[in-house]
Amino acid sequence: MKKELITVSPNEARVRSIVEMVVLREKRIQVNDKDEFTSLNVEDYYEIIKELTTAIINLDGYKTLSHKALFTYLKDHYLEFSSADHILIDELRKTRNKIAYEGFFIKSWYLRKNDIYIKQIVQKLRAIIKQKMNSDLDKRFKESKHIRPRHNFSAGEMDELVENEVLR
Predict the structure, then answer these.
(1) pLDDT tens, 8-67?
(2) What whole-number distance in Å separates Cα of residue 41 and Cα of residue 29?
(3) End-to-end CA distance of the chain
(4) How far is CA 115 from CA 94, 108, 127, 166, in A?
(5) Rounded alpha-carbon distances, angstroms, from residue 55 to 3, 19, 98, 106
C-alpha cells in the first residue's frame, strides 16, 4: 500500500476547498427527494467520505489515486473507526461503482437502514480534520445540519461514547 501513496506538502487551502465541496454535496442530499434520488444520494455520501478522507491524508502529507489505498490508509492510521465502519465504507465504494458504471439503482430502504452509520463516519472524519487543522471549520460544517446523526451528541459526549465503544 505504501507504494500507492505519493508524498505531498500538506495544503490547508486545498482542504478548505474540499470541505466547501462536501458542504455542497450535503446540501444537494438535503434537497433531493429521498426515494427518487436514493442512488444519487448514496453516491454523494460515498464521495463525501472519500473527499474528507482525501483531505485527511493530504494533511498527513500524502495523496493517492486509488480509492482502496485511501481507505486502507484510513484503516491503518485512524483507530477511531470500527471494523463495521470500514465494512460500510467498502460497501459504499462498491455500490458507488455499480451506480456509476452500471446504472445500478438503490432501493430507498438501503439508505434508511444505513443513514445514521454513514453520518457517524462523516462526523468522525470531520472531527479529525478540525483537530488536524486546529482551526474553526465549524461554520462550514454547520451549513449542512442534515448530515449530523439523529442523536445530537456534543463533541465530548461523542468522544466518550466512542471511548466506551457504545457506537462500535
Answers:
(1) 999 999 999 999 999 999 999 999 999 999 999 999 999 999 999 999 999 999 999 999
(2) 6
(3) 26
(4) 17, 10, 18, 18
(5) 19, 8, 25, 28
Burial zone of 40 (CB within 10 Å; 0-12 exposed, 13-18 middle, 19+ buried): middle
- 30-36 — which CB contacts under 8 Å span 24+ positions? 30/144, 30/146, 34/108, 34/111, 34/112, 35/108
Residue with cell string 452500471: 102
pTM listed for this prediction: 0.80
Cβ–Cβ under 8 Å, residues 32 and 41: yes
The DSSP annotation for 40-106 comes to HHHHHHHHHHHHHHHHHHHHTTEE-S-HHHHHHHHHHH-TTS-HHHHHHHHHHHHHHHHHHHH----
Bridge partners of 62, per DSSP, are 7
Task: Report how far residue 51's alpha carbon sits from residue 30's, in angstroms, rounded to the nearest whole number.
Answer: 18
